[in-house]
């Protein structure tokens, strides 16, 4: 085997690694222009009041933070998209808030999530957003956990866990500056 033939596998491996880095780097930039610090601070202002309404403190909707930590970089787009849809289509619609300040904060977070959904959709036009079986199972588990509780309790529980999702978004989408 000549030297050129021996270098082909190394070249293919190097090219694959570069493309994977560019792909995950690009996904992180999709949501980089969302001010996560502001979202987290806004939520912190109402977190205690929402969690005080939680009648099932030993149950979680987002499973465990470990479930989100185990998401592979290639699945970040899919899981982000699915969990944004979960919060928009279920949690924000199902939660009934009577306190005006909390309602304003929740509406602000929902508007930011809507903005993130649109940014992610634009990003998906440029890149694929595949969902592995592992990613699909992780998000299905969230929906299943939600469905095991009565709707008002599930919505309150999910809002109380919003900081887990916000921290995960920040970790997976905020490592680069906007494109």
UniProtKB/TrEMBL annotation:
Location in the cell: Secreted
Q: Which UniProt keywords apply?
A: Cytokine, Disulfide bond, Secreted, Signal
InterPro entries cross-referenced by the UniProt entry: 4_helix_cytokine-like_core, IL-10/19/20/24/26, IL-10_CS, IL-19
Q: Gene Ontology terms, cellular component aspect? A: extracellular space
- Report the main location listed first in the record: secreted
Q: What intrachain disulfides are recorded?
A: 30-123, 77-129, 78-131
Named from the GO MF annotations, one term is: cytokine activity
Q: Which family does it belong to?
A: Belongs to the IL-10 family.
PANTHER family of this UniProt entry? Answer: INTERLEUKIN-19, INTERLEUKIN-19-RELATED
Stated role: Immune regulatory cytokine.
- Name this polypeptide is given: Interleukin family protein
User: What is the originating organism of this protein?
Assistant: Octodon degus
């Amino acid at each position: 085997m000549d030297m050129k033939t021996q270098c082909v596998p190394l070249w293919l491996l190097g090219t694959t690694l570069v493309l994977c880095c560019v792909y995950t780097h690009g996904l992180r930039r999709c949501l980089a222009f969302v001010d996560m610090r502001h979202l987290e601070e806004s939520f912190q202002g109402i977190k205690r009041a929402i969690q005080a309404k939680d009648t099932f403190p030993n149950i979680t909707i987002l499973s465990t933070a470990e479930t989100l930590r185990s998401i592979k970089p290639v699945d970040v787009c899919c899981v982000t998209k699915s969990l944004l849809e979960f919060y928009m289509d279920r949690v924000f619609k199902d939660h009934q808030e009577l306190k005006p300040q909390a309602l304003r904060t929740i509406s602000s977070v929902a508007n930011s999530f809507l903005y993130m959904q649109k940014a992610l959709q634009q990003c998906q036009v440029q890149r694929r957003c595949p969902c592995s079986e592992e990613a699909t199972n992780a998000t299905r588990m969230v929906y299943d956990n939600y469905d095991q509780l009565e709707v008002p309790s599930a919505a309150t529980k999910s809002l109380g866990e919003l900081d887990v999702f916000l921290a995960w978004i920040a970790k997976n989408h905020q490592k680069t500056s906007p494109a």
